[in-house]
Amino acid sequence: MDLITLWFLIVGVLLIGYFVLDGFDFGVGMALPVLGNDNTDRRLIINTIGPVWDLNETWLIVAGACLFAAFPEWYATMFSGFYLALLLILVALILRGVSFEYRHQGKGRQWTRWFDQFIFWGSLLPPLLWGTAFANLIQGLPIRPLETGGWVYEGTLLTLLNPYGLLGGITLTLLCFTHGLVFIALKTMGDMRERARTLATKAGLVALVSAAAFLVWTVLQHLGDSNAGVVILLAALAAVALVAGILFNLRGREGWAFTFNALTIAFALLTIFMALHPHLMISNIDPAYSMTIAGAASSQKTLELMTWVAAFTLPLVLAYQAWTYWIFRKRLSRAHIPSEEEAHA
């Protein structure tokens, strides 16, 4: 395997890691107004991801850095063309992160309510916009090469808001919502666990319908491609994993349900990456204008240096993350949440 293909796979794995891990964070945030009957419930929900949410978001930073170093033309074209969508994602993530830190300052009910709203919208918008953006990558975008080198995106934010793109955004949002509900059920006890598990089943069924429509549409668009067989296989695996997650959730096996939900997101993203390969961005102006992996990659020396750095650092990151999840593996309940007076004592 050459280094260009290797780094395409590494970037893909990092993005999958981000959407699997930060995906349940988003789902937990979206569940806040639905499952949080009172402030104690909402604090319990937030505490399920309290030790790990910021660690999960580092996957996006690492993926972005690797994307910039390994495929600078892809990074430049996508970030300049999608700048408004990415700005909205950034603002949403900032508001969400600030809210986790400031909502508990105890400056009144209205103060807390505002930050709860920021957590909800900051958890809803990123998967919706990310899903829309990635769906558009494989459907095709108005890009063309420049005479001076590189590519330019000739659309706007509204260009991304087409039926297929929006379906991709809605599908990822529903998958993250289901993923987050299962995580809440996995991390809590008592009434919260039962309510989260019940809602996860309902959300999972809706996600199944949306995901099936999106995956079938994706497969139909790429039936004539050389890697159509792999795309169909990965789409089928994503559907099977989602069904398995719903069934395990019904049986109260939240650990297995969470695992299969994670596999659903992973297989769905792999379907997108394989539908893209060997391109990074497909042009709907002229297929000849499409951005290829080889055409957007960095030099061989850059990729060699990055490979050595990744071989040393990635195992450390994975080991630290695994250790963190192991330390904070126990379930929580309302009894673990201190009263407002104790929290500010």
Explain the overall architecture:
- The chain has 345 residues and is mainly α.
- The protein has one domain: Formate dehydrogenase/DMSO reductase domain (Formate dehydrogenase/DMSO reductase fold, Up-down Bundle), CATH 1.20.1630.10.
- Helices cover 77% and strands 3% of the residues.
- The chain has 14 helices and 4 strands.
- The longest helix is centred in the N-terminal third of the chain and has 33 residues.
- It is globular, with a radius of gyration of 21 Å.
- The C terminus is likely disordered.
What's the arrangement of strands in the largest beta sheet? 1-2
The CATH homologous superfamily is named Formate dehydrogenase/DMSO reductase domain
Describe the main β-sheet briefly: 2 strands, antiparallel
The CATH class label is Mainly Alpha
**What class would the helix/strand composition place it in?**
mainly alpha
Give the count of structural domains: 1
Give the end-to-end Cα distance, rounded to a whole number of Å. 59 Å
- Total strand segments: 4
Given as residue ranges, the uncertain stretches (5+ residues, pLDDT < 50) are: 341-345
Q: Could you say what the CATH architecture is?
A: Up-down Bundle
Helix content: over 70%
Radius of gyration (Å): 21 Å
Order of helices and strands: HHHHHHEEHHHHHEEHHH
Strand content: under 5%
The overall average pLDDT, rounded, is 89
Shape: globular
Q: Helical element count?
A: 14
Subcellular location: Cell membrane
Protein name: Cytochrome d ubiquinol oxidase subunit II
Pfam families: Cyt_bd_oxida_II
Membrane topology: Multi-pass membrane protein
